[in-house]
Known about the structure:
The chain is 66% helix and 0% strand. The protein is mostly helical. The chain has one domain (2-149): dinb family like domain (Four Helix Bundle (Hemerythrin (Met), subunit A)). Helix 1 (2-22) runs parallel beside helix 6, helix 3 (40-58) packs parallel to helix 5 and helix 3 (40-58) packs antiparallel against helix 6 (113-137).
Amino acid sequence: xLEQLIEAWQTNHRVTxxxxxxxxxxxxxxxxxTRGGRDVARQLAHVHEVRTSWAEISSKTxxxxxxxxxxxxxxxxxxxxxxxxxxxxxxxxxxxxxSWARGGKVTSFKRGLIPLISYLIAHESHHRGSILxxxxxxxxxxxxxxxxxxxxxxxx
Length: 156
């Protein structure tokens, strides 16, 4: 079960990276906000920051890690996002392993490990959907292979 949970987390991470890889620099700057809300890059930076926050709260090992952080309002580059997301995905994997060893107990998340990972995957799925809608409504075409491929977890 531990390996399946880690595989679910890693697959979720690969979905986010697949989407990021397909985006142009222009697409990363796309936004529907008229009042300074998050562009696509900032939504992905937010995903990273949420991962990092939970990793640091829930794992002694992660408290000593120094993952990249982005300032509020910062729109990181694709390269910066790839590195940050890789670091935070590793941090969550460390959390999974440490929490599993403690019987699924997670500091500051009373429901436990599996609900925490479910929460994180749901959170990221929400933002990927928001990103896809933003891209569609701002005229950034995505291939059918990408749009459907994000759901083909057997191939990711």
